[in-house]
């Protein structure tokens, strides 16, 4: 068992700053740093990435808080004054992704920027940021798992941790659900980094992210014990959101894969060189397949 007795707050005189909030801010900054580092490879300027960032962060934070409040409706209906108290924790990953994507899509449409290419760019920064953010969950004790007898269980001992007080007092070992997510995200990140060696259709890396992220969240939620409100067929809100994403994304991902097998795309590689397989294709076949691909990309 692993014992965690760290105070989840940084205390400065009478001020208590949640470590969770520090990790969230650090995760956002890490995502921005990585996005800026990848900007030129995907054809964006640093100014465009910063503009996307300024559009995504407010929408992501609002969406993250809103979905969390909906998910824990009973808690917030009992005490509505807790709704704006975001510094106490309480953000939904799906809410962040949905809210951030909505504002990014609006901005990309307004500025006539390639949305799919930007979504492909942010897969790596997003997974890195999500992983770092979950470290804050481990420190704080939120998003905690169900009791376990497995040797890698976490035991929280600090009274300010977010677990039930009797679990802390009785030293109940629990599944390290946030750690499971970190390991899942890092595995998915490794897959996406490996795929960068191939010329993929626009949007395919983001689809891989959607499928991997949703599958991971759906499975790991079965190991979560923090207050969960079943929404449908015993599934909580996160799982209910994950299911339609998987139902939509998996067939689309398979279609993208089939297009890639039929005809490797002709596009600029990350180094800026043009990769073409025209020499190995009959004349006129490229245009026809490209039209078919464009049809699938819409």
From TrEMBL:
A 1,2-diacyl-sn-glycero-3-phospho-(1'-sn-glycerol) binds at residue 134. This is Phosphatidylglycerol--prolipoprotein diacylglyceryl transferase. Catalyzes the transfer of the diacylglyceryl group from phosphatidylglycerol to the sulfhydryl group of the N-terminal cysteine of a prolipoprotein, the first step in the formation of mature lipoproteins. GO terms for biological process: lipoprotein biosynthetic process. Residues 267-298 are annotated as: Disordered. GO terms for molecular function: phosphatidylglycerol-prolipoprotein diacylglyceryl transferase activity. It is an enzyme of class 2 (transferase). The lineage of its organism: Bacteria, Bacillati, Actinomycetota, Actinomycetota incertae sedis, Candidatus Hakubellales. Pathway: Protein modification; lipoprotein biosynthesis (diacylglyceryl transfer). PANTHER family: PHOSPHATIDYLGLYCEROL--PROLIPOPROTEIN DIACYLGLYCERYL TRANSFERASE, PROLIPOPROTEIN DIACYLGLYCERYL TRANSFERASE. The keyword Nucleus does not apply. It comes from Candidatus Hakubella thermalkaliphila. Its main location: membrane. InterPro entries: Lgt. Its EC number is 2.5.1.145. GO terms for cellular component: plasma membrane. Keywords: Cell membrane, Lipoprotein, Membrane, Transferase, Transmembrane, Transmembrane helix. Belongs to the Lgt family. It is a multi-pass membrane protein. It is found in: Cell membrane. The chain crosses the membrane at residues 12-37, 49-70, 82-108, 182-199, 237-256. It comes from the Bacteria. Pfam families: LGT.
């Amino acid at each position: 068992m692993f014992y965690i007795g760290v105070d989840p707050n940084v205390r400065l005189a009478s001020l208590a700053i949640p470590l969770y909030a520090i990790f969230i801010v650090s995760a956002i900054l890490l995502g921005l740093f990585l996005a800026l580092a990848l900007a030129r490879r995907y054809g964006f300027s640093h100014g465009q990435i910063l503009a996307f960032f300024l559009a995504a962060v407010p929408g992501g934070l609002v969406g993250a808080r809103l979905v969390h409040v909906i998910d824990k409706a009973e808690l917030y209906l009992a005490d509505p004054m807790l709704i704006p108290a975001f510094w106490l924790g309480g953000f939904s990953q799906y809410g962040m992704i949905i809210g951030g994507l909505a504002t990014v899509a609006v901005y990309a449409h307004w500025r006539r920027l390639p949305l799919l290419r930007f979504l492909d760019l942010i897969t790596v920064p997003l997974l890195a940021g999500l992983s770092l953010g979950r470290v804050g969950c481990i420190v704080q004790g939120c998003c905690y798992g169900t009791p376990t007898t497995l040797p890698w269980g976490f035991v929280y001992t600090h009274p300010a941790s977010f677990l039930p007080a009797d679990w802390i007092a009785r030293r109940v070992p629990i599944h390290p659900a946030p750690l499971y997510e970190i390991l899942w995200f890092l595995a998915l990140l490794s897959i996406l980094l490996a795929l960068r060696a191939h010329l993929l259709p626009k949007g395919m890396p983001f689809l891989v992210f959607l499928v991997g992220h949703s599958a991971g969240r759906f499975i790991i939620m079965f190991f979560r014990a923090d207050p969960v409100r079943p929404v449908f067929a015993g599934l909580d809100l996160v799982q209910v959101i994950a299911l339609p994403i998987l139902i939509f994304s998996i067939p689309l991902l398979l279609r993208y894969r089939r297009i890639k097998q039929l005809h490797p795309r002709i596009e600029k590689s990350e180094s800026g060189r043009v990769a073409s397989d025209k020499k190995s294709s009959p004349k006129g076949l490229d245009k026809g397949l490209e039209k078919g691909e464009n049809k699938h990309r819409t």
